[in-house]
Amino acid sequence: MGTSAAAAKAPDHDEYNEGHQVPAVLEKEVAERGDDPQTVLSKYWGIMSKTYNKEDGSTWAWNCFRVKDTYASNVNIDLGKHHKPENLVDSVAYWTVKSLRIPTDLFFRKRYGCRAMMLETVAAVPGMVGGMLLHFRSLRRFEHSGGWIRALLEEAENERMHLMTFMEVAKPAWYERALVVTVQGIFFNAYFLLYILSPRLAHRITGYLEEEAIYSYTQFLAEIDKGNIANVPAPPIAIDYWRLPKDATIRDVVTVVRADEAHHRDVNHFAADIHHNGKKLREAPAPIGYH
Question: Which residue ranges does UniProt annotate as crossing the membrane (predicted)?
């Protein structure tokens, strides 16, 4: 695409251009015309973002996810499911998770907003680690993943969106931010090694972690219902991501997040069972889009 054509028409600002510079060949021409440098850069590279609208016709406000990524969570999922430990691997996973809950309860007590924010920074790790390692395995062995790479990365992204939501509700203190960095660093490396050594144990631990998350969010809801936590309006990002009504409250948000955790519980216990039966994940269809 020629430089004159690149500067001839200035389209709307493009989010792909943040932090980039216009090529030197265009700098003088851009300065003379008074065009937006970032807009010209978009035209130069031919990367033009689309304009997205909500169902009511209003402009989509988010760059971090699109309309196609939103969904209405199935809140009717069975929250009471529990995988009873049946062997040594299950018992190790179960009691590991139970032991991790003790310091969490002591630190956060009933500050459920901060607890949720902290735990979501950890909850997004297993899916990313599992998806990444399966991705490399697929490359090394020239084999398909059965959709499990996408399913696990989808889980990680969903957990990250939980964090993006609770960031709007709870404002972490400096020591809580420091704790996040420390815990995430430790947990990522530990889970990375664990997944290499025993994917079955790793998925079982994640399944039990999700069971504990369900319990924590149930307590969160109970505190809201008692009036101990204000049932404030839901953040706009949550309303759009989960397709909630405009008058949704934080109680509605916690309800759909809890349902998400129940779905993640099912996915990870399912994955652990596949390994327990001596199979590879790719031998069973991955639950893509299971919300």
Answer: 116-136, 174-197
The answer to whether the CB of 232 falls within 8 A of the CB of 250 is yes
Alpha-carbon span 5 to 40, nearest angstrom: 10
The enclosing H or E element of 222 equals helix 199-226
Can you give the pTM of this predicted structure? 0.81
Token readout for 105 is 């309860």
- Structure confidence at residue 13 as a pLDDT band (50, 70, 90): very low
Residues in CB range of 57: below 8 A, 6 or more apart: none
**pLDDT tens per residue across span 44-73:** 777 777 778 887 778 888 888 888 899 998
Residues in the chain: 291
Of 275, 236, 200, 191, the residue nearest 70 (C-alpha)? 236
b or e along 160-174 (b: 16 or more beta carbons within 10 Å of the residue's beta carbon)?
bbbbbbbebbbebee
Q: Is the pLDDT of residue 169 over 90?
A: no
Give residue 50's identity as a one-letter amino acid code: K
Amino acid of residue 123: A
What lies within 8 Å, CB to CB, of 70 at 6+ separation is 240, 241, 242, 243
Residue 101, judged by CB atoms within 10 A of its CB (0-12, 13-18, 19+), counts as: middle
CA distance 170 to 111: 9
Q: How far apart are CA 130 and CA 134, in angstroms?
A: 6
Provide the total of helices (H) and of strands (E) in the chain, helices listed first.
10, 0
How far apart are the C-alpha atoms of 6 and 40, rounded to whole Å?
A: 6
CA distances from 167 to 9, 162, 185, 191, 237 (A): 39, 9, 20, 25, 11
Q: What is the signed CA dihedral for 10, 13, 14, 15, rounded to 10 degrees?
A: 160
Closest alpha carbon to 152 in 170, 177, 132, 166: 132
Neighbours of 65 (CB within 10 A): 16
